[in-house]
Amino acid sequence: MSASFINEYSDMVEACLEKNLVGASDSYKAVIEAMRYSTLGGGKRIRPAIMLMFYKLCGGTADSAVNFAAALEMIHTYSLIHDDLPCMDNDDMRRGKPSCHKAFTENIALLAGDALLTEAFGLAAKTKGIAEYRIIESLSVLAECAGVNGMIGGQVIDLQGNGNINSIETLTEMYHRKTGALICAAVKIGTILGGGNNKQVLAGEKFAYNLGLAFQIIDDILDATGDEQELGKPINSDIKNGKFTFVTALGIDACREKARQLTNEAREALNVYEGNKKEILTLTEQLLNRTY
């Protein structure tokens, strides 16, 4: 993620997170420290960057929507904290350092995730300078995409699969919900807050669906071929856990071609948006060719 505009969005979101991840008392500082440990100073900030790009594309100025962008990152981080727990994927490393439950304790990590999810909606609701009905609609989108019909649903499919997911159709649904839902939230919220119309919101969903699936396919490839130090987490975890992935189903070369096709379809969906799409197009290319 080397483009300068990505760093600008990331810095803006980082400052907002730094300011808002605080507690009112030392008596529960452990959970605040765990929240900050997992959220600050790491991560690609892809979802908030996408949200701010679409907000800008639809006529907004990024600083007006930064609370929503930071909230999206908080929800993403909570999902990673819970994902790493022993009762879920049981991963000891995240972003090149010990997972939250390893750096603190399992119960504090659980509560840190809960707190990030809860505080995210409070932060987003404090957004100023945007029509209230757009804020309310965006909060609804955020809840839907993070909830049982979105990210949580995808996690359940993954857990209940327990090595028994053996079709591209089920795998695609899991990825669409587990990974794609928050990307969809980023696109839709950015469009709604920026003043986009219904046609653009629907096109944004198509963009997000294709980009999210391509993103996860690249993750599958990197799990099989990536550099553990660069990724900041163990590789070959899918193979060790006997998981059915796009790589096991199609092979590396076919996966790269599938990700390329999905990325092209995502780009085509942007045609209904007016304005300069250079940032978004650049990001989609970077995500396709990323190595971490």
Question: Can you tell me about this structure?
Answer:
There is one protein chain. By secondary structure, this protein is mostly helical. It has 16 helices and two strands. It has helices at 4-20, 29-39, 46-57, 66-84, 100-103, 106-125, 132-146, 151-161, 168-178, 180-193, 198-225, 228-231, 237-240, 246-250, 252-269, 278-288, and strands at residues 93-94, 97-98. Strands 1-2 form a two-stranded antiparallel ribbon. A hairpin with a 2-residue loop joins strand 1 and strand 2 (97-98). Helix 1 crosses helix 3 (46-57), helix 3 (46-57) runs antiparallel to helix 4 (66-84) and helix 15 packs antiparallel against helix 16 (278-288). The chain is globular. The protein starts with a helix and ends with a helix.
Q: Short summary of the structure?
A:
The chain is mainly alpha-helical and 292 residues long. The protein has helices at 4-20, 29-39, 46-57, 66-84, 100-103, 106-125, 132-146, 151-161, 168-178, 180-193, 198-225, 228-231, 237-240, 246-250, 252-269, 278-288; strands at 93-94, 97-98. The longest helix has 28 residues, at 198-225.
Features:
292 residues, mainly alpha, 70% helix, two-stranded antiparallel ribbon
Blueprint (SSEs and pairs):
Elements: H1 4-20, H2 29-39, H3 46-57, H4 66-84, E1 93-94, E2 97-98, H5 100-103, H6 106-125, H7 132-146, H8 151-161, H9 168-178, H10 180-193, H11 198-225, H12 228-231, H13 237-240, H14 246-250, H15 252-269, H16 278-288
Helix pairs in contact: 1-3, 1-4, 2-6, 3-4, 3-10, 4-6, 4-10, 7-10, 8-9, 10-11, 11-15, 15-16
